[in-house]
Amino acid sequence: MSISKAINKTLVSTPERQQEADEDLAIVHKVQAGDVDAFDELVTKYRERIYAVVYNLTSNREDASDLTQDAFIKAFQSVGRFKGKSSFFTWLYRIALNTTLTHLRKNKLRRFFSFEKMSEEDHSAGFIEQLKTDSDSDKNALMNELQEKLNDAFQKLSVKHRTVITLYEIDGLSHKEIAEIVGTSVGTVRSRLHYAKQFLQAELKDYVK
C-alpha cells in the first residue's frame, strides 16, 4: 500500500457538522446582541484546534500561542460583521490561517509537519505499519528518522501545499471546508493534496513498504 492510499480519504459534511454550525451561529447572534461573554464559549470550543493547525505551520509553541490569541482577538473584533454565509468554524479558521501566513511571510520561519500528530489523530491509519521493520526498538528509531525526513520533505512544499495538507491531515477538514478557508475551488484543493501526497510519497519511499 502506498502512502497516498494510506492517508487518502474524503470527508463529507455530516449532520453533526451542520448541528455544530447552527449552535455556533446561535452563540454568534448572542455576541452580536451584546452578550460579549458568550464569545468565550467559542474560544473554549476551538482554541485547541486552532492552536494545532497554527503550530503545525510554525513549529513554534510560543508563536502558535500568540497567533492563536491574535486570531481570536481579530475574530471578536470582526464578529459584528459575520453574516453566517459560511460556518463560524470556517470563518475563524480563515482568520487564523491568514494571520499565520502573514507571520510566516514576515519572519520566513521553517515549518514542520508533525508525523506524531498525524499518528495521534489517526489520519494516516496504516502508515506506521508500513515501516520496513518488525522490531519495536528498530521501529522507534525509524520513526525518529522518518520524522526528520518528513520535516525536510514538508519544507520543500510551497506554502499553499503545506497549508492544504495540514488542514486535511492534521485537523481533518473536508475538501469543501479547506476550499472555503483558503479561498479556492474544491478541485484546486484536491489537486494540491494529490501533488503534496505524491511528493511526500516519493521523498519517503525508502521508509515504507
From TrEMBL:
Residues 42-108 form the RNA polymerase sigma-70 region domain. Pfam families: Sigma70_r2, Sigma70_r4_2. The keyword DNA-binding applies. Transmembrane segments: none annotated. GO terms for molecular function: DNA binding; sigma factor activity. Residues 148-200 form the RNA polymerase sigma factor 70 region 4 type domain. It comes from the Bacteria. SUPFAM superfamilies: Sigma2 domain of RNA polymerase sigma factors, Sigma3 and sigma4 domains of RNA polymerase sigma factors. Keywords: DNA-binding, Sigma factor, Transcription, Transcription regulation. InterPro entries: RNA_pol_sigma-70-like, RNA_pol_sigma-70_dom, RNA_pol_sigma70_r2, RNA_pol_sigma70_r4_t2, RNA_pol_sigma_r2, RNA_pol_sigma_r3/r4-like, WH-like_DNA-bd_sf. One of its GO terms (biological process) is DNA-templated transcription initiation. NCBIfam families: sigma70-ECF. Belongs to the sigma-70 factor family. ECF subfamily. This is Sigma-70 family RNA polymerase sigma factor. It comes from Pelagicoccus mobilis.
